[in-house]
Amino acid sequence: MKTIVVNKRQNEKIPFLRGILVRSLLDAGLSFDEANVIAKQVRDQLADTKTVTSEQLQQRVSVFLKDRDDESVLEQYQFPSVAPSRILVNSLSGRQKAFSRGRLARSLLSAGMKTEKAEYITELIYAQLITSGINSISTCELGYVTYLCLQQEVGNKAARRYLVWSEFQRGSKPLVLLIGGTVAAGKSTIATELGHLLEIVRIQSTDMLREVMRMMVPQNLLPVLHTSSFNAWKTLPIKDKKERDWDQLVAEGYLSQAELLAVPCEAVLQRAVEESVSIILEGVHVLPDLLERVPDSEEVIKVYVMLAVLRSKKLKSHLRGRGVDVPERRAERYLDSFDSIWSLQSFLLSEADHCDVPIITAEDKKIAIQQVIQQVNLELSRHFNGSPADVFGTIAKLADTRAKQPAWRETIRSLNG
């Protein structure tokens, strides 16, 4: 049950959110750990309360603050007069941006961390920066502090993944991420989410490339191009189709269409590599051998994954959803050809398994996205053999000269010195 907070002065009703209360307590001067504990206690008290006024909520919080021997915190909470500190982040190019918790959390998600843990680490670092009176920090300093925080609060493996991702972000190597899968496997949705998380602006769909080719080549010249991938077999010039193995026919029709799409796909990938721009190419026509068409170089990070929906009922549900979300994609047409779609997926998964390509089940979008990111980080780690000093520069080099690496909180405090 959600507790509603009623603000009578402003005539507003909003749900009680622990995060907002934590922020108020941080602004009053508490550490993140202290603010988090009090916010949880207040939330537990309100578990069976439907509504509470903002004044009543403030009174409940004040009871916990009165137990502390610091009246200034209680006063600042009850009568906030000073706006929260604004922290500026200075990039290597000299640009300044306001510290963004969303941006830091996104970088942690890009390094393979779960959402809850990423948000926790972000709030922890922000609270410590505020507590230490930091109003300006460089990207290298912030990155190194985050790395140390992950070492202490999560573990060396998480810190290592963040280090590898940070090195990639600061470099110029392009990432070529190929995402294959049958119809309704979630390729477009997952590619869009990954583009946001990994800060990749160039996302190309093979469906769009096929549509361009259809505009250029008439149907009577290339009928296989003007049909769905799972029904392309119907256009093959084969007389004895009834006597042929049906699954093999589905595969042959698909391969005929995919071969035509391989040329524009290769052109798109080569252009991205030439410009050193990361790209995500997704679509049913993305086969493992496309990786071989990408220039083989240590300067290019190549990752291929195959998405799969392994339960027929779930895939049918996805197909029905396509008809609701995009009416132009009539669900009936896909459901009528479900056997062909299922057969095509079996072929794609067999090809992926034969080529040792990671197969990721896409029945849960969040889990699938995290698993793709893990594959990206795994490939990045094969190209990385540096140290914190190589990635974060001077501040890490100074720490490395000490007998014992400083705790991340002490590192933040030292930035003022």
CATH topology of the largest domain: Rossmann fold
Output the radius of gyration. Answer: 27 Å
Strand count: 11
End-to-end distance, in Å?
48 Å
Q: Strand fraction band?
A: 5-15%
Q: Specify the structural class.
A: alpha/beta
Q: What is the CATH class designation of the largest domain?
A: Alpha Beta
Mean pLDDT figure: 88
CATH architecture classification of the largest domain: 3-Layer(aba) Sandwich
CATH superfamily of the largest domain: P-loop containing nucleotide triphosphate hydrolases
Give the strand order, joined by hyphens, for the main sheet.
8-9-7-10-11
Coarse shape = globular
The tally of helices reads 18
- Helix/strand order, N-terminal first: EEHHEHHEEHHEHHEHEHHEEHHHEHHHH
Point out poorly predicted stretches: none
How many distinct folded domains? 3
The biggest beta sheet reads: 5 strands, parallel
Helix content: 40-55%
Structure overview:
- The protein has 417 residues and is of the alpha/beta class.
- The protein folds into three domains: 4-78, no CATH class; 88-171 and 387-414; 175-205 and 260-382, Rossmann fold (3-Layer(aba) Sandwich).
- Helix content is 55%, strand content 11%.
- It is built from 18 helices and eleven strands.
- A five-stranded parallel β-sheet has the order 8-9-7-10-11, with helices on both faces. The protein has a three-stranded mixed β-sheet with strand order 2-1-3. Strands 5-4-6 form a three-stranded mixed β-sheet.
- β4 and β5 form a beta hairpin.
- α5 crosses α6, α7 (139-153) packs antiparallel against α8 (156-170) and α11 (246-274) crosses α14 (338-354).
- The longest helix has 29 residues, at 246-274.
- The chain is globular, with a radius of gyration of 27 Å.
